[in-house]
Design brief:
Aspartate Aminotransferase, domain 1, about 400 residues, about 10% strand, 7-stranded mixed sheet, pyridoxal phosphate binding
Protein backbone atom coordinates (compact mmCIF):
# COMPACT_ATOMS: atom_id res chain seq x y z
CA UNK A 1 0.00 0.00 0.00
CA UNK A 2 1.51 3.40 -0.99
CA UNK A 3 2.11 5.72 1.96
CA UNK A 4 1.49 9.01 0.15
CA UNK A 5 -1.93 10.04 -1.13
CA UNK A 6 -2.77 9.72 -4.81
CA UNK A 7 -3.91 13.35 -4.57
CA UNK A 8 -0.28 14.46 -4.65
CA UNK A 9 0.04 13.10 -8.19
CA UNK A 10 -2.47 15.73 -9.32
CA UNK A 11 -0.62 18.76 -7.97
CA UNK A 12 2.84 20.28 -7.92
CA UNK A 13 4.69 22.64 -5.57
CA UNK A 14 4.24 26.36 -6.29
CA UNK A 15 6.77 27.41 -8.97
CA UNK A 16 6.83 30.98 -7.65
CA UNK A 17 7.81 29.79 -4.18
CA UNK A 18 10.39 27.44 -5.75
CA UNK A 19 12.03 30.32 -7.64
CA UNK A 20 12.12 32.49 -4.52
CA UNK A 21 13.63 29.64 -2.51
CA UNK A 22 16.28 28.97 -5.17
CA UNK A 23 17.23 32.64 -5.29
CA UNK A 24 17.57 32.73 -1.49
CA UNK A 25 19.78 29.62 -1.57
CA UNK A 26 22.09 31.16 -4.17
CA UNK A 27 22.31 34.38 -2.15
CA UNK A 28 23.25 32.36 0.92
CA UNK A 29 26.04 30.78 -1.14
CA UNK A 30 27.41 34.23 -1.89
CA UNK A 31 26.00 34.68 -5.41
CA UNK A 32 24.93 38.13 -6.58
CA UNK A 33 21.25 37.36 -7.12
CA UNK A 34 18.33 39.66 -7.87
CA UNK A 35 15.03 37.97 -7.09
CA UNK A 36 12.09 39.10 -9.22
CA UNK A 37 9.96 36.04 -8.45
CA UNK A 38 8.03 36.91 -5.30
CA UNK A 39 4.74 38.80 -5.48
CA UNK A 40 5.47 40.80 -2.36
CA UNK A 41 5.62 44.59 -1.90
CA UNK A 42 8.96 45.84 -0.59
CA UNK A 43 7.20 48.49 1.53
CA UNK A 44 6.92 47.99 5.28
CA UNK A 45 3.50 47.51 6.86
CA UNK A 46 2.18 50.99 7.80
CA UNK A 47 2.97 52.01 11.37
CA UNK A 48 -0.64 52.45 12.46
CA UNK A 49 -1.35 48.83 11.50
CA UNK A 50 1.67 47.56 13.42
CA UNK A 51 0.62 49.66 16.41
CA UNK A 52 -2.86 48.11 16.32
CA UNK A 53 -1.29 44.65 16.43
CA UNK A 54 0.84 45.64 19.42
CA UNK A 55 -2.21 46.96 21.23
CA UNK A 56 -4.03 43.70 20.56
CA UNK A 57 -1.17 41.79 22.16
CA UNK A 58 -1.01 44.14 25.14
CA UNK A 59 -4.78 43.85 25.63
CA UNK A 60 -4.61 40.06 25.65
CA UNK A 61 -6.38 39.53 22.34
CA UNK A 62 -4.35 36.41 21.75
CA UNK A 63 -6.98 33.71 22.24
CA UNK A 64 -9.08 31.69 19.81
CA UNK A 65 -11.61 33.73 17.87
CA UNK A 66 -14.67 32.77 15.87
CA UNK A 67 -13.56 30.30 13.21
CA UNK A 68 -14.04 32.65 10.24
CA UNK A 69 -13.28 36.03 11.76
CA UNK A 70 -13.97 38.44 14.61
CA UNK A 71 -17.26 40.40 14.34
CA UNK A 72 -15.49 43.78 14.20
CA UNK A 73 -13.42 42.74 11.20
CA UNK A 74 -16.43 41.28 9.42
CA UNK A 75 -18.28 44.58 9.88
CA UNK A 76 -15.27 46.48 8.53
CA UNK A 77 -15.22 44.20 5.49
CA UNK A 78 -18.93 44.85 4.90
CA UNK A 79 -18.25 48.59 5.11
CA UNK A 80 -15.34 48.26 2.66
CA UNK A 81 -17.44 46.41 0.08
CA UNK A 82 -20.21 49.00 0.32
CA UNK A 83 -17.86 52.00 0.25
CA UNK A 84 -15.56 50.87 -2.55
CA UNK A 85 -17.62 48.44 -4.62
CA UNK A 86 -21.24 49.35 -4.01
CA UNK A 87 -21.92 45.82 -2.70
CA UNK A 88 -24.11 45.26 0.36
CA UNK A 89 -23.30 42.31 2.62
CA UNK A 90 -24.13 41.27 6.17
CA UNK A 91 -21.60 39.78 8.57
CA UNK A 92 -23.16 36.35 7.96
CA UNK A 93 -22.09 36.65 4.31
CA UNK A 94 -18.42 37.29 5.16
CA UNK A 95 -15.58 34.89 5.86
CA UNK A 96 -12.01 35.65 6.96
CA UNK A 97 -9.22 33.21 6.20
CA UNK A 98 -5.49 32.73 6.57
CA UNK A 99 -4.71 34.69 3.42
CA UNK A 100 -6.68 35.00 0.23
CA UNK A 101 -5.43 31.58 -0.86
CA UNK A 102 -7.27 29.83 1.95
CA UNK A 103 -10.51 31.61 1.13
CA UNK A 104 -10.30 30.41 -2.48
CA UNK A 105 -9.32 26.90 -1.39
CA UNK A 106 -12.18 26.68 1.10
CA UNK A 107 -14.69 27.71 -1.57
CA UNK A 108 -13.47 25.07 -4.00
CA UNK A 109 -13.27 22.35 -1.35
CA UNK A 110 -16.79 23.16 -0.19
CA UNK A 111 -18.38 23.01 -3.64
CA UNK A 112 -16.50 20.79 -6.10
CA UNK A 113 -17.34 17.18 -6.87
CA UNK A 114 -15.51 14.82 -9.26
CA UNK A 115 -16.29 15.87 -12.82
CA UNK A 116 -17.06 19.51 -11.97
CA UNK A 117 -15.27 21.94 -14.25
CA UNK A 118 -13.73 25.29 -13.36
CA UNK A 119 -12.95 27.80 -16.11
CA UNK A 120 -9.66 29.60 -15.52
CA UNK A 121 -8.36 32.30 -17.89
CA UNK A 122 -4.71 31.72 -18.75
CA UNK A 123 -2.19 33.07 -17.96
CA UNK A 124 -3.36 32.30 -14.44
CA UNK A 125 -2.02 32.47 -10.90
CA UNK A 126 -0.13 29.21 -10.47
CA UNK A 127 -2.30 27.99 -7.58
CA UNK A 128 -5.72 28.11 -9.26
CA UNK A 129 -5.52 24.84 -11.26
CA UNK A 130 -3.84 22.92 -8.46
CA UNK A 131 -6.43 24.00 -5.90
CA UNK A 132 -9.18 22.90 -8.27
CA UNK A 133 -7.54 19.49 -8.67
CA UNK A 134 -6.98 19.13 -4.92
CA UNK A 135 -10.71 19.70 -4.48
CA UNK A 136 -11.48 16.98 -7.04
CA UNK A 137 -12.49 19.27 -9.90
CA UNK A 138 -11.19 19.71 -13.43
CA UNK A 139 -9.50 22.98 -14.42
CA UNK A 140 -10.45 24.27 -17.88
CA UNK A 141 -7.89 26.85 -19.04
CA UNK A 142 -9.01 29.48 -21.57
CA UNK A 143 -5.96 31.09 -23.14
CA UNK A 144 -5.78 34.87 -23.48
CA UNK A 145 -2.98 35.77 -25.86
CA UNK A 146 -0.62 38.72 -26.09
CA UNK A 147 -2.57 39.92 -29.14
CA UNK A 148 -5.66 40.32 -26.94
CA UNK A 149 -3.74 42.00 -24.10
CA UNK A 150 -3.94 38.77 -22.05
CA UNK A 151 -7.73 39.10 -21.62
CA UNK A 152 -10.27 36.50 -22.70
CA UNK A 153 -13.24 37.41 -24.86
CA UNK A 154 -16.92 36.78 -24.30
CA UNK A 155 -16.85 34.33 -27.20
CA UNK A 156 -14.07 32.32 -25.55
CA UNK A 157 -15.95 32.20 -22.26
CA UNK A 158 -19.17 31.11 -23.97
CA UNK A 159 -17.36 28.33 -25.81
CA UNK A 160 -15.76 27.00 -22.61
CA UNK A 161 -18.98 26.65 -20.62
CA UNK A 162 -20.47 23.16 -20.48
CA UNK A 163 -23.19 21.55 -18.32
CA UNK A 164 -20.35 20.48 -15.99
CA UNK A 165 -19.04 24.01 -15.41
CA UNK A 166 -19.42 25.04 -11.76
CA UNK A 167 -17.10 28.04 -11.36
CA UNK A 168 -15.51 30.77 -13.42
CA UNK A 169 -12.41 32.18 -11.70
CA UNK A 170 -11.89 35.85 -12.51
CA UNK A 171 -8.76 37.82 -11.54
CA UNK A 172 -8.36 41.49 -12.48
CA UNK A 173 -5.82 43.03 -12.37
CA UNK A 174 -4.17 39.74 -13.08
CA UNK A 175 -1.36 37.81 -11.56
CA UNK A 176 0.82 37.16 -13.63
CA UNK A 177 0.14 39.67 -16.42
CA UNK A 178 -1.18 42.77 -14.66
CA UNK A 179 -3.98 42.89 -17.24
CA UNK A 180 -7.12 44.63 -16.04
CA UNK A 181 -10.59 44.34 -17.53
CA UNK A 182 -12.41 47.60 -18.22
CA UNK A 183 -16.06 48.05 -17.33
CA UNK A 184 -17.10 47.34 -20.94
CA UNK A 185 -14.87 44.27 -21.22
CA UNK A 186 -16.18 42.82 -17.98
CA UNK A 187 -19.80 43.59 -18.90
CA UNK A 188 -19.43 41.40 -21.98
CA UNK A 189 -18.29 38.52 -19.77
CA UNK A 190 -21.06 39.00 -17.23
CA UNK A 191 -23.62 39.05 -20.06
CA UNK A 192 -22.42 35.54 -20.99
CA UNK A 193 -22.61 34.39 -17.36
CA UNK A 194 -26.17 35.67 -17.05
CA UNK A 195 -27.14 33.19 -19.78
CA UNK A 196 -25.71 30.27 -17.77
CA UNK A 197 -27.29 30.29 -14.29
CA UNK A 198 -25.48 27.13 -13.19
CA UNK A 199 -22.06 28.84 -13.35
CA UNK A 200 -20.79 30.56 -10.21
CA UNK A 201 -18.19 33.34 -10.21
CA UNK A 202 -15.12 33.39 -7.98
CA UNK A 203 -13.68 36.90 -8.25
CA UNK A 204 -10.13 37.36 -6.93
CA UNK A 205 -9.79 41.13 -6.38
CA UNK A 206 -6.47 41.06 -4.51
CA UNK A 207 -4.91 43.79 -6.66
CA UNK A 208 -7.90 46.13 -6.55
CA UNK A 209 -5.96 49.17 -5.31
CA UNK A 210 -2.94 48.62 -7.56
CA UNK A 211 -4.22 50.13 -10.81
CA UNK A 212 -2.53 52.74 -12.95
CA UNK A 213 -3.13 55.68 -15.26
CA UNK A 214 -6.88 56.27 -15.68
CA UNK A 215 -7.90 52.61 -15.26
CA UNK A 216 -10.90 52.09 -12.96
CA UNK A 217 -11.27 48.83 -11.07
CA UNK A 218 -14.61 46.99 -11.29
CA UNK A 219 -15.74 43.61 -9.94
CA UNK A 220 -18.34 41.25 -11.48
CA UNK A 221 -21.15 41.57 -8.91
CA UNK A 222 -20.78 45.36 -9.12
CA UNK A 223 -21.17 45.32 -12.91
CA UNK A 224 -24.06 42.82 -12.98
CA UNK A 225 -26.27 42.72 -9.84
CA UNK A 226 -27.97 39.65 -11.30
CA UNK A 227 -24.82 37.68 -10.45
CA UNK A 228 -24.79 38.73 -6.79
CA UNK A 229 -26.36 35.50 -5.50
CA UNK A 230 -23.80 33.26 -7.22
CA UNK A 231 -20.62 35.29 -6.77
CA UNK A 232 -17.91 34.95 -4.14
CA UNK A 233 -15.97 38.21 -4.11
CA UNK A 234 -12.56 37.76 -2.46
CA UNK A 235 -9.85 40.17 -1.41
CA UNK A 236 -7.26 40.66 1.30
CA UNK A 237 -4.76 42.98 2.93
CA UNK A 238 -1.59 41.32 1.64
CA UNK A 239 -0.73 43.41 -1.40
CA UNK A 240 -2.24 46.88 -1.02
CA UNK A 241 -1.40 47.15 2.68
CA UNK A 242 2.01 45.40 2.49
CA UNK A 243 0.84 42.69 4.88
CA UNK A 244 1.82 39.49 3.07
CA UNK A 245 3.17 37.80 6.20
CA UNK A 246 0.16 38.67 8.35
CA UNK A 247 -1.93 36.17 6.32
CA UNK A 248 -5.41 37.69 6.22
CA UNK A 249 -7.79 37.29 3.29
CA UNK A 250 -11.54 37.58 3.12
CA UNK A 251 -14.54 36.91 0.94
CA UNK A 252 -18.23 37.67 0.75
CA UNK A 253 -21.05 35.73 -0.88
CA UNK A 254 -24.26 33.78 -0.25
CA UNK A 255 -24.81 32.67 3.36
CA UNK A 256 -25.03 28.94 2.49
CA UNK A 257 -21.66 29.06 0.74
CA UNK A 258 -20.03 31.02 3.56
CA UNK A 259 -21.32 28.50 6.12
CA UNK A 260 -19.96 25.60 4.06
CA UNK A 261 -16.58 27.31 3.81
CA UNK A 262 -16.64 27.82 7.58
CA UNK A 263 -17.13 24.09 8.04
CA UNK A 264 -14.02 23.38 5.96
CA UNK A 265 -12.02 25.95 7.94
CA UNK A 266 -13.25 24.65 11.27
CA UNK A 267 -11.71 21.26 10.51
CA UNK A 268 -8.47 22.54 8.99
CA UNK A 269 -6.82 25.70 10.32
CA UNK A 270 -9.61 27.04 12.55
CA UNK A 271 -9.43 30.82 13.06
CA UNK A 272 -6.86 33.11 11.43
CA UNK A 273 -4.28 34.62 13.78
CA UNK A 274 -6.12 36.84 16.28
CA UNK A 275 -3.44 39.55 16.28
CA UNK A 276 -3.41 39.65 12.49
CA UNK A 277 -7.18 40.12 12.47
CA UNK A 278 -6.91 43.23 14.63
CA UNK A 279 -4.14 44.52 12.37
CA UNK A 280 -6.40 43.95 9.34
CA UNK A 281 -9.22 45.76 11.12
CA UNK A 282 -6.98 48.82 11.41
CA UNK A 283 -5.89 48.44 7.80
CA UNK A 284 -9.49 48.62 6.55
CA UNK A 285 -10.74 51.30 8.95
CA UNK A 286 -7.63 53.44 9.47
CA UNK A 287 -5.99 56.04 7.19
CA UNK A 288 -5.88 55.13 3.52
CA UNK A 289 -3.72 58.04 2.41
CA UNK A 290 -0.65 55.89 1.72
CA UNK A 291 -2.40 53.91 -1.03
CA UNK A 292 -2.15 56.65 -3.69
CA UNK A 293 1.60 57.38 -3.19
CA UNK A 294 2.38 53.64 -3.21
CA UNK A 295 0.36 53.24 -6.38
CA UNK A 296 2.31 56.07 -7.99
CA UNK A 297 5.61 54.40 -7.08
CA UNK A 298 4.47 51.09 -8.55
CA UNK A 299 3.34 52.85 -11.74
CA UNK A 300 6.78 54.41 -12.15
CA UNK A 301 8.39 51.02 -11.62
CA UNK A 302 6.09 49.49 -14.22
CA UNK A 303 7.08 52.14 -16.74
CA UNK A 304 10.79 51.60 -16.03
CA UNK A 305 10.58 47.81 -16.44
CA UNK A 306 8.39 47.90 -19.55
CA UNK A 307 10.70 50.41 -21.22
CA UNK A 308 13.90 48.51 -20.45
CA UNK A 309 12.56 45.06 -21.31
CA UNK A 310 11.23 46.29 -24.65
CA UNK A 311 14.79 47.39 -25.41
CA UNK A 312 16.01 43.82 -24.86
CA UNK A 313 16.61 41.93 -28.10
CA UNK A 314 13.87 39.38 -28.82
CA UNK A 315 11.54 40.47 -25.96
CA UNK A 316 8.08 42.05 -26.27
CA UNK A 317 6.69 43.44 -23.02
CA UNK A 318 3.13 44.81 -22.92
CA UNK A 319 2.19 47.65 -20.56
CA UNK A 320 -0.27 46.31 -17.96
CA UNK A 321 -3.11 48.15 -16.24
CA UNK A 322 -2.31 47.07 -12.68
CA UNK A 323 -0.82 44.72 -10.07
CA UNK A 324 3.00 44.70 -9.93
CA UNK A 325 3.88 42.20 -12.63
CA UNK A 326 4.82 42.21 -16.30
CA UNK A 327 4.63 39.16 -18.53
CA UNK A 328 7.11 39.55 -21.41
CA UNK A 329 6.96 37.38 -24.52
CA UNK A 330 10.23 35.73 -25.63
CA UNK A 331 9.15 34.26 -28.96
CA UNK A 332 12.07 36.09 -30.57
CA UNK A 333 14.56 34.17 -28.43
CA UNK A 334 13.36 30.61 -28.97
CA UNK A 335 15.98 28.57 -30.80
CA UNK A 336 18.87 30.85 -29.88
CA UNK A 337 21.77 29.71 -27.71
CA UNK A 338 23.82 31.20 -24.89
CA UNK A 339 27.59 31.61 -25.29
CA UNK A 340 27.89 28.53 -23.07
CA UNK A 341 25.87 26.50 -25.56
CA UNK A 342 22.49 26.30 -23.84
CA UNK A 343 19.74 26.34 -26.47
CA UNK A 344 16.65 28.31 -25.47
CA UNK A 345 13.94 25.85 -26.50
CA UNK A 346 11.32 27.02 -23.98
CA UNK A 347 10.73 29.61 -21.27
CA UNK A 348 11.79 27.32 -18.42
CA UNK A 349 15.22 26.87 -19.98
CA UNK A 350 15.36 30.64 -20.55
CA UNK A 351 14.62 31.35 -16.87
CA UNK A 352 17.11 28.73 -15.69
CA UNK A 353 19.90 30.06 -17.93
CA UNK A 354 19.09 33.64 -16.95
CA UNK A 355 19.45 32.78 -13.26
CA UNK A 356 22.61 30.74 -13.70
CA UNK A 357 24.39 33.21 -15.99
CA UNK A 358 23.19 36.60 -14.73
CA UNK A 359 21.79 36.01 -11.25
CA UNK A 360 18.33 37.33 -12.15
CA UNK A 361 15.50 35.12 -10.88
CA UNK A 362 12.19 35.21 -12.77
CA UNK A 363 9.33 32.71 -13.08
CA UNK A 364 8.93 30.87 -16.39
CA UNK A 365 5.67 31.28 -18.28
CA UNK A 366 4.67 27.61 -18.51
CA UNK A 367 3.93 27.74 -14.77
CA UNK A 368 1.17 30.24 -15.54
CA UNK A 369 -0.31 28.40 -18.51
CA UNK A 370 1.06 30.45 -21.43
CA UNK A 371 4.44 30.20 -23.15
CA UNK A 372 6.94 31.39 -24.20
CA UNK A 373 6.91 34.08 -21.52
CA UNK A 374 8.26 34.90 -18.10
CA UNK A 375 6.92 36.87 -15.15
CA UNK A 376 8.73 39.74 -13.49
CA UNK A 377 7.57 41.10 -10.15
CA UNK A 378 8.61 44.75 -9.97
CA UNK A 379 7.81 45.08 -6.26
CA UNK A 380 11.33 46.27 -5.48
CA UNK A 381 13.42 49.43 -5.80
CA UNK A 382 14.11 51.34 -9.02
CA UNK A 383 17.84 50.72 -8.66
CA UNK A 384 17.41 46.97 -8.31
CA UNK A 385 14.96 46.84 -11.21
CA UNK A 386 17.26 48.87 -13.46
CA UNK A 387 20.19 46.55 -12.72
CA UNK A 388 18.08 43.43 -13.27
CA UNK A 389 16.72 44.70 -16.59
CA UNK A 390 20.22 45.71 -17.72
CA UNK A 391 21.39 42.14 -17.01
CA UNK A 392 18.45 40.76 -18.99
CA UNK A 393 19.32 43.08 -21.88
CA UNK A 394 22.94 41.86 -21.88
CA UNK A 395 21.84 38.23 -21.64
CA UNK A 396 19.55 38.59 -24.67
CA UNK A 397 22.13 40.51 -26.68
CA UNK A 398 24.66 37.69 -26.22
CA UNK A 399 22.34 34.98 -27.52
CA UNK A 400 23.34 33.63 -30.91
Amino acid sequence: MPFLSDTLARVKPSPTIAVTTKAAQLKAEGRDVIGLGAGEPDFDTPQNIKDAAKRAIDEGKTKYTAVDGIPELKQAICAKFLRENGLTYTAAQVTVGTGGKQVLYNALMATLNPGDEVIIPAPYWVSYPDMVMLAGGTPVPVVATLENAFKITAEQLEAAITPKTKWFIFNSPSNPTGAGYSRDELKKLTDVLMRHPHVWILSDDMYEHLVFDDFRFVTPAEIEPGLYDRTLTTNGVSKSYAMTGWRIGYGAGPVALIKAMGTIQSQSTSNPCSVSQYAALEALTGPQDFLAPNRKLFQARRDLVVSMLNQAKGITCPRPEGAFYVYPDISGLIGKATPKGTVITNDEIFATALLEETGVAVVFGAAFGLSPNFRVSYATSDAVLAEACARIQRFCAELI
